[in-house]
Design a protein that fits this description.
Blueprint: H1 6-9, E1 24-27, E2 41-48, E3 54-60, E4 66-72, E5 77-79
Length: about 90
């Protein structure tokens, strides 16, 4: 009898990430426990696919210093539309 393949038996959501590492995002709601407000811009530094989809996001101040880095659910962020200077 063949042994089951553990990789094929893992549960996944079946959804592919809609955002990727290095994408610029913005928060869609306040996270006061982290000192962040809706509209704050950050960068995705890692995508988690298990146990459920989540994004590790880094937030920096104007000097480039990290002010917060945390894992967020997809519904907490949206991709930021980058605008090039005129």
């Amino acid at each position: 009898m063949a042994k089951p393949n553990p990789a094929s038996s893992r549960r996944t959501s079946g959804k592919k990430p809609t955002m990727h590492e290095n994408d610029v995002i913005r928060l869609v709601r306040d996270l006061p426990e982290h000192g962040l407000t809706a509209g704050t811009v950050g960068t995705i530094v890692h995508v988690f696919n298990r146990p459920r989809l989540a994004y590790e996001v880094e937030f920096c101040d104007d000097g480039g210093h990290t002010t917060a880095q945390l894992a967020l659910a997809p519904d907490a962020i949206e991709r930021e539309a980058l605008r090039l200077p005129a």
